[in-house]
Write a structure and sequence with these properties.
Elements (H helix, E strand, L loop, with lengths): L1 H16 L17 E5 L3 E5 L4 E5 L8 H19 L7 H7 L8 E4 L3 E11 L17 E11 L4 H10 L10 E7 L2 E7 L17 H21 L5 E3 L8 E3 L5 E3 L6 E3 L7 E3 L12 H6 L1 E3 H17 L3 H6 L4 H11 L27 H14 L10 H16 L9 H7 L8 E5 L2 E9 L6 E9 L7 H13 L8 E5 L6 E5 L4 E2 L11 H18 L8 E3 L8 E3 L5 E3 L6 E3 L8 E2 L11 H6 L1 E2 L1 H17 L3 H8 L3 H10 L17 H14 L10 H24 L1
Antiparallel strand pairs: 1-2, 2-3, 4-5, 5-6, 6-8, 7-8, 9-12, 10-11, 13-14, 15-16, 16-17, 17-19, 18-19, 20-22, 21-24, 22-23, 25-26
Helix pairs in contact: 2-4, 5-7, 5-11, 7-10, 10-11, 14-16, 14-20, 16-19, 19-20
């Protein structure tokens, strides 16, 4: 036997010396009666009576038609049969396990295969590293629950898959237990995992953010094994990674399956790349540089993994996105460039399920989300040399998971503490309320025990099924939308079916109490308007990358005041987180809000946009100028404020509506600028109403006119 091997090696050496390598062997040199006489992973030798030659597998693209197919398949078959003898299973054993491939064992039908589930005794993979190539019958075996694929007329890719999986042993890679021939067909036997395909769960609530991170880490560890950690310095490029090639076991552990397109990297290559001449069609997961150049690298797998990460983030596959008219790769690049990718996080991950079972720990922690998006963005880079290695990806994903696991629900408060703060919700502490709520003031001890601080607790009445949705809306918005001009969330409690939200205390209360206060100067009134407009601009999507919030109940009573007349937006019980664009899109909804402030077009049609908030803000602006609420004006004039103001402007009597206490101090340019922008807010045509940014610009001009004129007067 040794003499035969020595003869083959000498023959190969002689061929190389004579330079009868690939370039000197033409298609005409090959005949169907040639046989493969020697195979390694990178080359194989054929012989007949006329010619013997060495062909490197990476060069088989030089052959055309069925010759290319025959060369590849012949090499693959012999490689598998020579190197993986220990995985060969007797056909008779498989037929007994499946009752001769009975229908009762069939679990799936593929385009080129039938799939069965059965119990079968196979090589115990735990002992693979200790095998000393004894007779198959002497190898350690155990019974597995298996998945059996009966593949009819298999391609060379199937044998490529057998060769790669036969050399893999990792918890995140599908386990190939064996194979056998059945005439022209091939049978593959795997350890049975699950029929749960990862892509089918992307839009399911069961996959919380923490589970998604763990699944990402599973996939990354599988890729790291293929790229760096296989036995014998083998390295594999997966080459066809997508969310359909990931399965989840009963414990939600992810395993990579497939491998038909996978390729070995030669340990002797200098640039760690394969150059493939096969035509490539671009789709969402495909490395764009590979499509352009044919250069396949491990970084190509990184790109595909980045594509999956964005599917995980958005909660939908590229195919589902395409069915909605969204090219996910193009969209992702656009969202990243615009800085709005955070806005595209799947709604099912944001902490509220269909039954309003709110859990602040369930959604992505900000640090976790930012870390995830950052590494996914690097993976999705268009150029291979801009992408990280899989080891770096793993490090970043572990950070993201750590942030999430350590994200404690620090704002959940005990009902006992809230009872203590409000003196068991004593009526003497009531400071406001509505149809389904009461608002109490209270005192909470500082954590260090030194003193107390004031809080406000809103307790909702949900006995009749009302108010619960209001609780979740408000809690969600206050938790996610942090801004200096939005009231701060201190805590919440949902113990014993109570629904309580705790806010920071606004020492001056609400604006409606100060409209007719003669001590509230025009300058401070402008400051309140600017503060509120700034908070509203943030909610309407002012460059922070989150979804739009439509307040739906803007009124003077919901503008909360602090020291130095700092103003914040309050009361989000009727608010809506919406995917509408800033200016054009709308939501169809039952009109709600407060009469006298409500957009008449919204009231009439149910069409809600951010411009509905603008109308309500216009009412508040004129209340501030007039020093009276819309209800007071209705009592005195018989009309709500919008109708009254429009009549006054029509008659050219704008100066008559100014609050008498501030009339003499207002600079004319400041007044004109303020009145013009406030009047635009009340336009019946939504398209003519300004945006929050335009309102802010004009209000700041009005303030500048007021301050500048005041300074001049003082100097003179």
């Amino acid at each position: 036997m040794r003499q035969v091997e020595q003869a083959k090696e000498a023959q190969v050496k002689q061929i190389r010396q004579r330079k009868l390598a690939t370039n000197s062997i033409t298609r005409s040199d090959y005949k169907p009666n040639k046989k493969v006489i020697w195979v390694t992973r990178m080359e194989w030798v054929v012989e007949d009576s006329n010619v013997t030659g060495v062909v490197e597998l990476k060069d088989t693209n030089k052959f055309e038609g069925w010759w290319r197919w025959w060369i590849r398949k012949a090499a693959a078959v012999v490689t598998v049969q020579n190197n993986l003898k220990h995985l060969m299973i007797r056909l008779n054993d498989i037929e007994l396990a499946t009752d001769n491939f009975s229908e009762k064992y069939k679990i799936d039908t593929l385009s080129n295969a039938f799939v069965y589930k059965a119990k079968l005794e196979c090589l115990d993979k735990e002992y693979l590293s200790t095998i000393d190539w004894k007779n198959n019958d002497e190898l350690p075996k155990r019974q597995y629950t298996v998945k059996i694929e009966l593949i009819y007329v298999p391609s060379d890719e199937v044998y490529n898959k057998i060769e790669i999986l036969g050399n893999c042993n990792h918890r995140n890679i599908e386990t190939l237990l064996g194979f056998c021939k059945k005439g022209r067909d091939t049978i593959l036997v795997y350890e049975y995992v699950s029929t749960r395909c990862f892509r089918d769960y992307l839009d399911k609530e069961v996959l919380t953010w923490e589970k998604r991170l763990k699944i990402c880490l599973d996939i990354a560890h599988g890729l790291n094994y293929l790229h760096h950690e296989m036995d014998g310095q083998k390295r594999v490029i997966y080459h066809d990674l997508d969310s359909g090639n990931i399965v989840l076991d009963d414990n939600w552990v992810a395993k990579v399956i497939g491998f038909e397109k996978s390729r070995y990297l030669s340990t002797y290559q200098d640039d760690d790349a394969l150059y493939l001449n096969d035509p490539v069609n671009f789709y969402y997961y495909t490395d764009p540089e590979f499509v352009e150049t044919g250069k396949l690298k491990r970084e190509s797998d990184i790109y595909s993994f980045g594509a999956i990460m964005f599917e995980i983030l958005c909660g939908m596959t590229a195919l589902v996105a395409l069915s909605k008219g969204i090219w996910l790769d193009v969209s992702v690049w656009g969202w990243l460039e615009e800085g709005v990718i955070n806005q595209k996080v799947a709604r099912i991950l944001k902490g509220e399920n269909g039954e309003h079972n709110f859990m602040l720990k369930r959604g992505p922690n900000k640090d976790s989300l930012d870390t995830f998006i950052n590494i996914a963005t690097q993976c999705f880079a268009k150029k291979q040399n801009q992408r990280p290695t899989i080891k770096i990806v793993i490090n970043e994903l572990e950070k993201a998971l750590s942030f999430q696991e350590n994200n404690k629900d620090i704002i959940r408060m005990s009902l006992e503490d809230i009872n203590l703060a409000t003196q068991d919700f004593n009526c003497a502490n009531v400071i406001g309320g509505g149809g389904f709520e009461r608002v109490y003031k209270g005192e909470v001890a500082e954590k260090d025990g030194n003193g107390h601080y004031m809080i406000v607790a809103k307790k909702l009445d949900i006995r009749h099924g009302q108010g619960e949705k209001q609780f979740y809306n408000e809690l969600q918005i206050l938790y996610e939308y942090k801004h200096e001009n939005i009231i701060d969330l201190v805590g919440y409690s949902d113990e014993t079916d109570e629904k309580i939200i705790v806010y920071e205390h606004a020492p001056k209360g609400s604006l409606d109490k100060y409209l007719s206060d003669t001590s509230l100067t025009w300058k401070n009134r402008l400051k309140i308007c600017i503060d509120f407009a700034t908070g509203l601009d943030f909610l309407h999507g002012g460059g922070h990358g989150q979804e739009v919030v439509i307040h739906r109940d803007i009124k003077a009573a919901n503008i909360l005041l602090f020291e130095d007349w700092k103003a914040k937006v309050g009361d989000f019980g009727l608010s809506m987180i919406s995917t509408v664009k800033r200016d054009t899109d709308y939501v169809i909804d039952h009109a709600c809000g407060t009469k006298g402030y409500l957009d008449p077009l919204y009231l009439k049609s149910g069409f809600l946009t951010v411009k509905s908030d603008i109308y309500s803000f216009g009412v508040v602006l004129f209340e501030i100028l007039c020093g009276r609420t819309t209800f007071t004006i209705h009592k005195l004039k018989g009309h709500l404020l919008p109708s009254f103001i429009k009549q006054v402007f029509k008659e050219g009597k704008q100066g008559e509506v100014i609050f008498h206490a501030i009339k003499d101090e207002i600079v004319p340019k400041s007044l004109t600028t303020f009145q013009n922008i406030a009047y635009q807010c009340l336009d019946n045509d939504r398209e003519k109403r300004p945006t929050t940014k335009e309102i802010l610009t004009e209000l700041k001009k009005a303030m500048e006119f007021q301050v500048t004129r005041g300074q001049r007067f003082y100097l003179t």
